[in-house]
Write a structure and sequence with these properties.
Blueprint: E1 6-8, E2 13-14, H1 15-25, H2 47-60, H3 71-84
Antiparallel strand pairs: 1-2
Helix pairs in contact: 1-2
């Protein structure tokens, strides 16, 4: 996943926007990333990725593994997730 690829597919929020938000605002909880164009408030698919981005950026100041998945695979996994009926929630 590149910096301009969407992490939040519901609201098309890019990795770059989320990264900049986290580095600028330094939210203490990953759930506060929802303030960045509502990322993570739609289907919930991106919540685990948002948590990883949050942890990596606060710990290292850069994205390491959170965006390693190719965009097409990320979207395919989301389609399967939506079909399954499961939902992630922000618990923090």
């Amino acid at each position: 996943m590149g910096p301009d690829d969407p992490v939040c597919l519901c609201f098309r929020v890019s990795c770059r926007k989320i990264t900049n938000f986290i580095l600028r605002e330094r939210p203490p909880r990953a759930s506060l990333i929802s303030e960045c164009l509502s990322a993570g408030t739609g289907c919930g698919w991106c919540i685990p990725t948002l948590r990883r981005l949050h942890a990596e950026l606060l710990a290292y100041g850069e994205v390491r593994e959170a965006s390693a998945i190719p965009p097409a695979q990320y979207e395919a996994l989301r389609r399967a997730y939506l079909r399954s009926g499961r939902r992630h929630r922000h618990d923090d």
